[in-house]
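Comment thread on ticket #2218

A.B. wrote:
> Attaching the input chain for the structure job we discussed in standup.
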Amino acid sequence: MKQGFVSCGPEGIAIACQPGTYCSDPTTLTCTEGCLSNVNCGCGEVCTGGSCVGASVCGDEQCTGGEDASSCPADCAPNPCGNGVCDAGESFGICPEDCAPPNPCGNGVCDAGETSQSCAQDCPDLKLECYDHCDVYNFFMCFNPGGLQICYDACDAASDAMLKQFSVCAASGAVSCDPSCFDHL
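C.D. wrote:
> Ran it. Output below, let me know if you need it in another format.
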C-alpha cells in the first residue's frame, strides 16, 4: 500500500483509509480524520498533535512540523532576526533588519543631529522663543511704540548664542520692563 494509506479491517473485506485518516474501528471498517503516527500521513507529512502536517527540513527557514528551538535552532530561534518583527530580546544593535534605531528625542538634551524641526522638546526654536519673550514684555507701557517690532527684528538678526542668552535672561523673570535683557540681543 502507498504511504499514508492504511488498511482497515480483516483481509478480503478491508478498506483503505486515506492519508490523514486512521483506522478507528477495524470491526466496523471506520476511518477517522487525524493520525496516530506518521504511518497515517501522506508523503512529506508527519503526525503532530493528531494531525498530519507538512514535514519540515531543518534549515529551510520555516519552523514547521516537529521542529522547535532545541531540535532546529536555525528555523525556530526564539527571536529570529530578519522576520520583520522586533521581537523581545532584539534591538537595533542586535537586529537592525527588524528594529528601528533608538529615538533620543525627549531626553532633555539637544543631541547631535537633532534640530528644532526633528525634536522640538529637546531643541526649541530659539527665534520662536525669542518672539515669545518679546510678546511677554509690555512694550506699549514700558517701551516706545514699535518696540515689539524692534524686538522681533533683533531676534531675527541675533546669533544662536545671543538668542540663548536673551532666553535665559527673559525666562529668569526679568520681564517687568527690564531693558537689560535686550543687551543680549
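A.B. wrote:
> Thanks. Noting for the ticket: The chain has four helices and six strands.
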